[in-house]
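Before a colleague's protein record goes any further, I have to sign it off. Thanks in advance; the entry in question is below:
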Amino acid sequence: MRNVGNNMGVLTSFGVIGIVGMIILPMHPVLLDVLLAFNIAMAVIIMLMTMFTTDILQFSVFPTLLLIATLFRLGLNVSSTRLILSQGSAGEIISAFGGFVTGDNYVVGAIIFVIIVVIQFIVITSGAGRVAEVAARFTLDAMPGKQMSIDADLNAGMLTEQEAGLRRLNLQREADFYGSMDGASKFVKGDAVAGIVIVIINFIGGIAIFVGQKGIPFSEAMQLFGVLTIGDGLVSQVPALLISVASGILVTRSATGVDFGSELSKQLLSIPKAIGITSIVLLALGLIPALPSLPFMIFAGISGLLAYFLTEEAKQNESTAKAVAAKPVSEVEREPESMVRYIQVEPLEIEIGYGLIALADASSGGDLLDRIAAVRRQNATEMGIIVQPIRIRDNLQLPADRYAIKIRGNEIASGEVLHNHYLVMDPGNVKIDIKGKDTVEPAFGLPAVWVDEKQKDKAEMLGYTIVDPTTVMVTHMNEVIRKHSHELMGRQEVKSLLDMVKEKHGAVVDELIPDLLTVGEVQKVLQNLLREQVPVRDLVTILETLADFAANTKDAEILTEYVRHRIGRTIVKPYLSEKGSLDVITIHPQIEQEIYENIQKSFQGSFPAISPDLNTGILERLDKLQKDSALKNIKPVVLASPRIRSPFKRLIEMTFPDLPVISLNEIPNSIEIEGLGMVKINDN
């Protein structure tokens, strides 16, 4: 059987070629009988398959199979027509069908044949075609929403990439199936028309040939060809009717997960009261004198017994449920409840008030899920970090228009957005002269105003920056990810990055891990880089640098400085001015020496233990220089010697978290340096 399945493609190809051969080449009556029996068997199998499938995709080959079955029937019609017109006989099956149905009157057989064709053509095929057409239209219309739902489940972590891909594929296959069924129904209509035409040709042509050429009496020819043509038509149209019914069943079934028979019995027998009333109605009809009482009485009794047994079964199930409900909790057998989900925390999640749910609802036009997916891609592209799927939860304890961003269960940032409003900001940081609700932009702390749709056009004419609520949330979340990217760089994320690098640069990973460094030690270096907003996209260079120096030291801080030296262009690039120079604030050598002589190591890294006066003086001087630079619209960096760069950054990061500190050996020789001032002792 396995060999047959493996070779089915070859057998099918020869079968289709054989169908074409049937149309061209003459066929022996015995072979025609075999193929007619096969045609009937295949029609029965196809109809039963549609009744036992639980999902349309289990029989997605049906439209193509319908075309081949139709072509096969037409080939049989041509072969039988050739035999009827040439020999006046077409095998035993056609003769048996014609004689059994027509009896002694072929007119009755003709009427039955026409009725079957009408049922197939007008009732079943037209209805199935219309259902397939509507289903195809609705499936295509619903595809964007279903695809967004799949993306939402993927972003929420409810699906893996493989599961999401499989769902998208099944969604596309479902749309293709209904579209194909809409076209395949035209084959059945054409087959019915062709059947009528072939019957007429057989009847008229056979009489003309055998009366005119072979000289048999007209009445005998009428009887002979009446039986043969009706038999031929019935043999071909009965399987066609079965397949038409199968197509109707398939397109009208909904995906319930059970076969048609189980679904029918479950739903048809679900209300015993309806069956009991039916029994009473049938009994009343049986008591009417003008109607035969026996048939109605029989079915009244059957339906009454069925209603009784179903009612008793329902009562028994209800009493069992009550007994289980009344049982003490200790006596009820239950599986131990899993506590895992209660102790798990999400790496990153957003909680939203009920007034913001529409932003995440794709059916209401919300695109928050798509925008979050874009943020994950953006951080992967720009920072080289893998942001795990971001879960969105509704929190009724939050105010309606408020949201909170959490990292590992702890709230990191929050904000307020107004649905169906727009956030208006002035690029020049002046007071906004427009009516609305004053607020502060959550990501950068800029003054802003929430306005409704009516005020939006006015704000645009005044040249203000206008942002929709979703963009406000996404921008805030993106800034939170950037500032806390080192917290999101866990060992699992590092392992994923290493596996990615290993696919093309396996040598560097094999050399470094586990002989020189562990995954955790590589993680610390990457976290140190991300803590100062240094992208880790060039992971190959980072790992090669670690492999070069890890044999000499395992100190993550020292290794980080080695890496910074190697990726200096990447570090300096965001801070270059429009003309390509680097605006820096330098540190007086005396301060550098003082810091270097007082560096102390801790588990958090190196930190300068200098006097409070010196510490205050450094911070005040930096504050003055930074404000002077801001007036000139310049964003400076602090230039320090390599030996104190890291300790100096820790010294000022609490007061100036966004002020970058770079060392001289991180600046490429081709970049010009422009000094903005120097941090000096006793310099006000």
Q: What stands out?
A: The CA atoms of residues 500 and 506 lie 9 Å apart. Residues 2-130+189-265 form one domain.
